[in-house]
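Students often ask why inverse folding is considered easier than folding. One informal answer: many sequences map to the same fold, so there is more than one right answer. In these notes we will look at a single instance of the problem. The structure comes first.
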C-alpha cells in the first residue's frame, strides 16, 4: 500500500513539474524556444564558438596575420616554427620572446639543420606595426602580434619561398570560407526554388523537375567533379577560375535539398491551414511566402550548416590535387598542394598546418548543425 502511495506521489510531482515547464515556455515564440534549447546544448554552443572563431579569422585576417600573403623572407627558406619562450636561461620569468635560428650542416649527409641561437633574441609584443592591409576600403598597418625589433617571426615556419605559413593559413581562411558560403548559398537558393515549386504545384512541372533532379544525382560525384574541373581554362584569371569552380560545385549540389524540400512541401500542402488559405482565395505567392517556405526554414538552416563543411572539404581536396583554386589566390587546399610527396613532408612537416584549420572548421560547423537540429526539433524536451 505504501509502495503505491509513493508511486502516486512521484507521478503527481512529475506532472506538476511538466505543467510548470509548459507554463514557463507558453509565452515564448518558436525562435525563442529554439534559442533556449540551443543554449542548453553544450556541444552546439562549443560548435558556435568554433564557427565564430573561424569567421573572425577570415574577416580580420589582415590584423591577425603578421605578414601579407606573398610577403617573403629570403633568409628563411623552409624555416622551422619558432617557439615562444616565457623563461630566461636561468629559469626566471621573462617577457615573451623568440630565438632566431643558426644554420648547421652535417658534414656526413650535407643536411642543413636549424638550431636556436641564444644571441639572436627578440621580444614579442601585441599591436605592432607591419605590412599594410585593407579593411572596408581603409588602410591599416597594425597587427595582433609581432616582434618589437621588427625581426621576422614565423610561428608555423616558412615554405619553399620563405613565406610565413601562419599568415598564409589565416589569409587562406577567406578564400576557403568564401567558396563554402558561395556554393552553399547558391545551391540553397536554387534547390529551395525548385523543390518548393515542384512540391507545391505538382503535375507535369513536378514530373519534369524531378526527372532533372534524378539525372543530376545519377552522376558519380568525384569523377564528374574532376572531369568538369579539367575543362577549366588554365590561362584565365584566377578569379574567373574561382567563379567557374564554384559554379561547377553548385551545379551538382542543389539537387539534394531540392528533393528533400519537395517531400516536406507535399506534406505541408495538405495541412488544414494551407487548405483554409486556399479556400479563402489566397494567392499562390502569399501561400508560399506565408505558410510553406517559413515552415521549411528550419530544415534549410540545418542543411546549410551541414553543407558548408562538406564544401570546405571538397574544395580543399580538389585544390590539393591542383584542379581547384589557382595561385596567386591562396586557400587551405592550395597550401597543402606543396606537400604532395613524402620528401616534401619529411623536409617541412609544418606545411601541414592548414589541416588543423580544416579539422577545426568541419568539427565546429558540424557541432553547430547538430545543436541547431536538436533545438529545432518540435518534440525536443525543454
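Output (designed amino acids):
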Amino acid at each position: 500500500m505504501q509502495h503505491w502511495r509513493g508511486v502516486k506521489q512521484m507521478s503527481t510531482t512529475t506532472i506538476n513539474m511538466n505543467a510548470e515547464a509548459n507554463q514557463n515556455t507558453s509565452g515564448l515564440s518558436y525562435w525563442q524556444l529554439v534559442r533556449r534549447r540551443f543554449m542548453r546544448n553544450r556541444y552546439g554552443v562549443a560548435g558556435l564558438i568554433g564557427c565564430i572563431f573561424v569567421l573572425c579569422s577570415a574577416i580580420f585576417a589582415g590584423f591577425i596575420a603578421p605578414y601579407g600573403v606573398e610577403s617573403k623572407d629570403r633568409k628563411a627558406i623552409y624555416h622551422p616554427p619558432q617557439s615562444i619562450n616565457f623563461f630566461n636561461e636561468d629559469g626566471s620569468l621573462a617577457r615573451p620572446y623568440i630565438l632566431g635560428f643558426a644554420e648547421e650542416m652535417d658534414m656526413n649527409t650535407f643536411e642543413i639543420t636549424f638550431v636556436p641561437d641564444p644571441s639572436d633574441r627578440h621580444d614579442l609584443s601585441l599591436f605592432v606595426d607591419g605590412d599594410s592591409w585593407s579593411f572596408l576600403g581603409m588602410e591599416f598597418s597594425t597587427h595582433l602580434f609581432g616582434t618589437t625589433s621588427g625581426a621576422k617571426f614565423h610561428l608555423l615556419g616558412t615554405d619553399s619561398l620563405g613565406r610565413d605559413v601562419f599568415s598564409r593559413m589565416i589569409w587562406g581562411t577567406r578564400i576557403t570560407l568564401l567558396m563554402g558560403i558561395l556554393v552553399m548559398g547558391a545551391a540553397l537558393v536554387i534547390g529551395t526554388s525548385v523543390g518548393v515549386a515542384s512540391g507545391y504545384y505538382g503535375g507535369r512541372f513536378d514530373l519534369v523537375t524531378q526527372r532533372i533532379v534524378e539525372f543530376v544525382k545519377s552522376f558519380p560525384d568525384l569523377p564528374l567533379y574532376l572531369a568538369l574541373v579539367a575543362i577549366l581554362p588554365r590561362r584565365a584569371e584566377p578569379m574567373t577560375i574561382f567563379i567557374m569552380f564554384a559554379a561547377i560545385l553548385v551545379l551538382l549540389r542543389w539537387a539534394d535539398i531540392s528533393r528533400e524540400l519537395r517531400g516536406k512541401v507535399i506534406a505541408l500542402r495538405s495541412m488544414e491551414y494551407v487548405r483554409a488559405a486556399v479556400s479563402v482565395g489566397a494567392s499562390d505567392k502569399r501561400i508560399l511566402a506565408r505558410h510553406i517556405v517559413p515552415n521549411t526554414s528550419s530544415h534549410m538552416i540545418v542543411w546549410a550548416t551541414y553543407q558548408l563543411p562538406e564544401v570546405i572539404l571538397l574544395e580543399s581536396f580538389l585544390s590539393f590535387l591542383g584542379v581547384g583554386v589557382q595561385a596567386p589566390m591562396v586557400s587551405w587546399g592550395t597550401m597543402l598542394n606543396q606537400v604532395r610527396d613524402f620528401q616534401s613532408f619529411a623536409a617541412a612537416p609544418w606545411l601541414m598546418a592548414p589541416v588543423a584549420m580544416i579539422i577545426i572548421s568541419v568539427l565546429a560547423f558540424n557541432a553547430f548543425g547538430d545543436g541547431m537540429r536538436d533545438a529545432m526539433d518540435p518534440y525536443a524536451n525543454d
